[in-house]
Amino acid sequence: MASTTVEFLQRLFRRKLVLAAAIVLAVLILAALFAPWISPFDPGAIRVIRRLKPPSETNWLGTDEYGRDVLSRIIFGARASLGIGAAVVAISIVVGTAVGLVAGYFRRLDAPIMRMVDAVMALPDILLAIFLVAILGSSVFNVVFALAIVYTPRVVRVVRASTLVVRELPFIEAARTIGVSTRRILGFHVFMNVTSPVLVQATFIFAYAVLAEAGLSFLGAGVPPEIPTWGEMIASAQQYADQAFWVVLFPGLAIVLAALSLQIVGDGLRDMLDPKLRKML
Fold it and tell me: Do 217 and 235 meet the contact criterion of CB atoms below 8 Å apart?
C-alpha cells in the first residue's frame, strides 16, 4: 500500500508544474494552520501612525489603511479563505456523492433529482450565492452553506454519470445475483469506483469556492468584516490602491496562487486517474 502511494505521488509530481503547484498549496495550508505562531503581528492591531506604509524590514508587505500588517492579515486570511473552501468541499462531496449514487442507481429517482440539479445549475454561481447569503445573513456558516448549495450539483452530476456506467458492469450484476444488499452495493462496490472523478472534482470545487468567497467578501456579502479574508482585504483597501498598491496586490496574489495551484493539482490528478490520459504521461 505504501509503495503504491509513493509510486502514485512520483508519477503525479513528475511534471514540474504540478510539483510547484503542490508546494505552493502546501505552504498556504501550513500558513493557515500555524497562523497564530508564524504571524509577525496581530492582524487586527490598529496602528494609525503607520497607515499605508510601504513594504519594509518591519512590515514585509506593508500596512493597510488602519496601519495593520498586510502579511499578518494575509496569513490569517488564508485560515478563513481556505477553511471556508475546505468546508464547502467536504459538504459538497458528502451530499453530492450520496445524491449522485441514488440518482444513478435508481432509475425512477434519476429524472426528478436531475431536474432539480439542472434547475440549480441554470443559475449563475455567484448570483445564487449572493441571493442565499442575503436571505440567510452574513456569517461564516451561511457563506459555507450557500456555496455548498451552489457546488453540490456539480458533484451530483459527476457521480451520477459514473454510477450509470458502473451499475451495468458484470461484477455489479454478480453481486445482485448472489443477494448482496443494495446498501452494500452502493456503499462499497459502486462508491469505490466513483472516487477518482470525485477526488478530481473536489480540487476544482476547492478552487471555485476560494474564488467565490473572495468575490462575496469583495461585494460585502461574505463573512463579517472583523474576520480577515483575502476578498475582504481587497474590498476595504481598493480606494487606496492608487497610493498604496500593496494593499490590493498581495491579497490578490494570494487568491490567484491558491486558485491556480488547486486547478493545476486537479489537472494533474485527472491526468493520473484517467486511463486514457495516463498512457500519454
Answer: yes
Q: Counting Cβ atoms within 10 Å, is residue 110 exposed (0-12), middle (13-18) or buried (19+)? A: middle
What is the phi/psi pair of residue 170, to 5°?
-60, -40
Cβ neighbour number for residue 22 with a 10 Å cutoff? 18
Q: In whole angstroms, what is the distance from residue 234 CA to residue 238 CA?
A: 6
The model's pTM is: 0.89
3-state secondary structure of 180: coil
Q: Which domains does the chain have, with CATH numbers?
A: 2-43+62-278 (1.10.3720.10)
pLDDT in tens, 140-194: 899 999 999 999 999 999 999 989 888 888 888 888 888 888 888 888 788 888 8
Q: What are the residues whose beta carbons fall under 8 Å from the beta carbon of 81, sequence distance 6 or more?
A: 210, 213, 214, 229, 230, 231, 254, 255, 258
Is the Cα torsion angle 264, 270, 272, 275 positive or negative in sign? negative
Please identify which residue in the block is written with the cell numbers 498581495.
250
Contact between 59 and 71 under an 8 Å Cβ cutoff? The reply is: yes
